Amino acid sequence: MVERYALEPLKSLWTLKAQYERWLEVELAVVEAYEELGIAPRGTSEEIRKKAVIDVEDILEIEKVVDHDVIAFIKSVTKNMGDEARYFHYGLTSSDIVDTANSLALVRASRHILDSMNKLADVLYKKAVEYKNLPTIGRTHGVHAEPTSFGLKFLSWYAELMRDIRRLNDAIEEISVGKLSGAVGNYANIEPVVEKIALEKLGLKPTPVATQVVSRDYIAHILSVFAITAGLIERIAIEIRHLQRTEVLEAMEPFREGQRGSSAMPHKKNPILCERLTGMARLMRSYAQVGFENMALWHERDISHSSAERYILPDSTMTIYYMLEKTRYLVENLRVFENNVRRNLELTNGLVYSQRILLALVESGMSREEAYKVVQKYALECWESGESFKEKIQSDERISEYISKEKLDSLFEPDYYLRNVEEIFKRFEK
């Protein structure tokens, strides 16, 4: 956990105390199941609940001796109990508790993440609508291509985020599983009905087949969803970083009063938030990679996954939550310089309308090969000279035979490229 990037409520969810509380939650659900089945006396779970004390320092001190965190937890939590302690952890193995509690943590963390995703989606959609009719230059390979709608940038991000939301909903449903099936998962010392009852109390389902652990594909899947979502955030951040370049300056991330961009250069306004998000996206991909590596364990289990998960489960959920919250702040407060957007549209002196000229010539009867050659000839000359592409085209008598001056003027209108934008937006009407 990096305090700098740990936001509530995710931060509190992953404290050691919260971890032990989840372990106790699982243990109590099992005791309650034993009570319902008549295996443990009525009132056993209530007595345990009253007497169980989670003392983090005491657990850690015991762990120094036993070198096993679950055993240390059991010894500490049951030290004030009487006969009811017999039913605490009865028939269970450590992974029953740890894996089931991890599922609880991931489900709860993911619900907060999902809430943040939905809030970001609302902001993206509002920005898309706000800038729907603002013509901007579309860029491919970083080079001016053709005019498009500035709002489509946001709508594209919104559409991708909605897919991520669906993916996370599916992953939450999938990872809402636990296992309470004993040392190698075959229910030798605990009946399947106990697992079913206990997991229902926790809002989980039994994994269909377990070894000593729940298979790690569940975790790999949800980590990959987080990584994909981080990829979208990186996409947003890189776009804004490009648009904030001095030579472009179409948009700029928020710069608060009192904020300073450089210790040496007072004029600087740097896209530090976007760059931070880009770096974090790299981390998110690495967490997913560890999730994939954890899938292959020896036989019924080893613990090569355990140490890694102590890092990646808290850090991945807290990092993606931080990224989502900061991206919402970024987009909500993004400065868009509309005059610069319009200025940059004309930087090439009309070259971005070359395809319209090409198609108009073809529609008027010129072969595509001839039309492409003549348009490209003038386009490349204008690349070098900086001359007006429209004036070059008008000076060619062959082109004048096919396209009138009035028609030619209409081919250099950016609004033409927005004529179907409304149709795209209709796909997302709420």
UniProtKB/TrEMBL annotation:
Family membership: Belongs to the lyase 1 family. Adenylosuccinate lyase subfamily.
Record has Lyase as a keyword: yes
InterPro entries named in the record: AdenyloSucc_lyase_C, Fumarase/histidase_N, Fumarate_lyase_CS, Fumarate_lyase_fam, Fumarate_lyase_N, L-Aspartase-like, Pur_lyase
PANTHER family tied to this protein: ADENYLOSUCCINATE LYASE
Molecular function in Gene Ontology: (S)-2-(5-amino-1-(5-phospho-D-ribosyl)imidazole-4-carboxamido) succinate lyase (fumarate-forming) activity; N6-(1,2-dicarboxyethyl)AMP AMP-lyase (fumarate-forming) activity
Enzyme class: lyase
A Gene Ontology BP annotation from the UniProt entry: 'de novo' IMP biosynthetic process
EC assignment: 4.3.2.2
Pfam families per the UniProt record, alphabetical: ADSL_C, Lyase_1
Signal sequence interval, chain numbering: none
The name this protein goes by in its record: Adenylosuccinate lyase
Record key words, sorted: Lyase, Purine biosynthesis
Domain Adenylosuccinate lyase C-terminal stretches: 349-429
Any one of the GO CC terms: cytosol
Catalytic activity: N(6)-(1,2-dicarboxyethyl)-AMP = fumarate + AMP; (2S)-2-[5-amino-1-(5-phospho-beta-D-ribosyl)imidazole-4-carboxamido]succinate = 5-amino-1-(5-phospho-beta-D-ribosyl)imidazole-4-carboxamide + fumarate
Pathway stated in the Swiss-Prot or TrEMBL entry: Purine metabolism; IMP biosynthesis via de novo pathway; 5-amino-1-(5-phospho-D-ribosyl)imidazole-4-carboxamide from 5-amino-1-(5-phospho-D-ribosyl)imidazole-4-carboxylate: step 2/2; Purine metabolism; AMP biosynthesis via de novo pathway; AMP from IMP: step 2/2
Species this chain originates from: Fervidobacterium gondwanense DSM 13020
